Backbone:
């Protein structure tokens, strides 16, 4: 169903929990109280040296990193992110972004973020899907942290699958060249929050991070919806 019809439909029919399908008493909350309370939160925002930060040691220097959820195959988080990406539930990204940003605000580890930069999609892929699901999430974080959303700084210029036959170093070299900086002089000496939906191997983050760190004085932090430890 197109988004606009969905919105009209939702005005007349009560929404269902996106995880278990039970009817929601309060509209616009996406999940029932039970499913909401069962989501696997990491609480990384307040936790220095968390597993996400440790995963990047020796790869790229991160000031701080956090993820709202742990990613579990076939779990509620996978189901929700699938709906966000492929079923037009773009508001979910904003909901997750606000949630995570409020958690980040309660920690002093993410103070002074100047720019929020979403991991870009290749324009062709973005056109096919209709939107980059990371942008809503990133914009909600930027707004809450009073930072500037800059989806124009980092571009994805190649649209191909990474060859799994190559070793990690070669793969990273290839991946690094898939991303390019654009009109990025302003990010010199800035504290940047790089934002993605799901972090698994971290190779994409590493490639994007390497590009962003080409500018002097950049401090990099990281935020994602979900992380596979
Ligand atoms: Zn539910």
Residues:
């Amino acid at each position: 169903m197109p988004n606009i019809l969905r919105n009209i439909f939702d005005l007349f029919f009560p929404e269902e929990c996106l995880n278990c399908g039970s009817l929601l008493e309060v509209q616009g909350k996406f999940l029932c109280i039970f499913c909401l309370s069962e989501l696997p939160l990491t609480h990384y925002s307040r936790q220095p040296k968390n597993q996400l930060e440790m995963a990047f040691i020796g790869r790229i220097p991160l000031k701080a990193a956090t993820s709202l959820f742990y990613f579990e195959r076939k779990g509620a988080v996978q189901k929700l992110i699938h709906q966000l990406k492929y079923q037009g539930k773009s508001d979910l990204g904003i909901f997750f972004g606000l949630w995570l940003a409020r958690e980040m605000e309660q920690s002093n580890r993410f103070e002074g973020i100047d720019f929020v930069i979403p991991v870009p999609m290749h324009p062709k892929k973005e056109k096919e899907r209709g939107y980059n699901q990371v942008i809503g999430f990133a914009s909600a974080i930027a707004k809450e942290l009073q930072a500037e959303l800059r989806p124009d700084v980092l571009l994805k210029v190649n649209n191909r699958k990474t060859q799994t036959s190559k070793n990690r170093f070669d793969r990273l070299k290839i991946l690094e060249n898939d991303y390019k900086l654009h009109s990025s002089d302003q990010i010199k000496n800035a504290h940047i929050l790089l934002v993605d939906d799901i972090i698994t191997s971290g190779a994409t983050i590493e490639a994007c991070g390497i590009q962003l760190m080409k500018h002097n004085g950049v401090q990099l932090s990281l935020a994602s919806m979900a992380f596979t430890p």
